[in-house]
Write a structure and sequence with these properties.
By secondary structure, the protein is α+β, with helices and mostly antiparallel strands. The mean pLDDT is 90. The chain is 26% helix and 43% strand.
């Protein structure tokens, strides 16, 4: 439901929390999970960055943007 709401600080906090919970619950092979979500109200998008430590102490980081298309 969060993706269908207009970008706002409250939705940003909820989205960060949900992403963190899902990774922590379903991906037991990672540790030190950091999720950063920022909203861009002008474009109604979210910038999401996730980093974690994977097997063999490999640091993984990736970022992506969620765009509302309607």
């Amino acid at each position: 439901n969060l993706l269908f709401e207009n970008a706002s600080p409250l939705i940003t906090i909820a989205m960060r929390s949900e992403i963190f919970k899902v990774i922590s619950k379903y991906e037991r092979r990672v540790k030190d999970v950091v999720v950063d979500v920022s909203d861009d109200n002008d474009d109604n998008t979210y910038n999401i960055s996730i980093s974690f430590t994977a097997q063999y102490d490999t640091q993984v980081e990736f970022s992506f943007k969620l765009n509302r298309i309607r």
